[in-house]
Amino acid sequence: MKWLDSLPLAGAFILPLLVALVLFLLPVLPALSAGAAGPVVLSAALGLALVGGLATAVALARRQRARLALALRGAAAVSEGRFDARIEASGRDEIGALLRAFVRMQDSLALRCDAEREIAERNLRIRNALDTARVSLMLADPEGVITYMNASAHTMLQRAERSMGGSLPGGVRASEIVGRHFDFFHRDPEAQRARIAALRTTYLAEIRLGEFAFQLVLNPVIDGEGRRAGTVLEWHDRTEEVALRGELGALVEAAVAGDFTHRIAIDGKSGFFLQLAQGLNRLMEVISGSVEDVARVLDAVARGDLTEQVAGE
What we know:
- By secondary structure, the chain is α+β, with helices and mostly antiparallel strands.
- Helix content is 57%, strand content 12%.
- The chain has seven helices and five strands, in the order H-H-H-E-E-H-H-E-E-E-H-H.
- It has helices at residues 9-34, 39-79, 94-132, 151-163, 189-197, 239-256, 271-302, and strands at 136-140, 146-149, 203-209, 212-222, 228-237.
- The protein has a five-stranded antiparallel β-sheet with strand order 2-1-5-4-3, with helices on both faces.
- A hairpin with a 2-residue loop joins strand 3 (203-209) and strand 4 (212-222).
- Helix 1 runs antiparallel to helix 2 (39-79).
């Protein structure tokens, strides 16, 4: 019956009629030639034609339904993400052309899904790496809406949130930042939005949130066609640096005024800032000791005692 697959749809409609006509004429023509084409012969020929035409139509319908069922099963498999369910794309009729087109679409979708799966896996690896990175990062789309924030940034902003009484500027919580425009940090959101939209190179900004001081480093993300694809934001906590800068200024001012007893507090400091504070404090102790020794010797000289000496080197 596969030869039926070569029939176009118009032929599939005409074939039952042709079969019926042939079956009708087979008994009628001889009867007409013999002059015996009576009602009985005509009735029998008509019945034969109806049965044959109907049987042919049923056979064609079953065959075409079976072929369409293949396409439906293939479509169901594709909808479930399975592209290995092959269908038989036989026939040169319209349904055969449809099945072949479906097979091509199935192969194309399989290749595309494989490529997208590979991209998704690569992006997931990148995201996992960013989530574990110590640098605080945010990503924003071309409109400036934050689409991603890594764990370090979330933890950092949670600390700032607690220092501000439980919420960031605008009443926003750290857990609600993704999905918002990043200009809500700024006092003049419209000006900030225009500035970021025109960003072509690295942009630096300082921001204070509660007791914390941050430096923001913004860089535009440009796609392969030179179009703006978004913005990446780096958050650097400079709270210790800013605090030490103020303490260092006070230390220098005190020294200039002749007060060498001033010291930098080391509580709450760590790493480089702790080492710097300890080093400066030791330096001030040495200077203070030397100045006291010199003052002691000069006082003795003023009293006529030339036996006093500077103890330090």
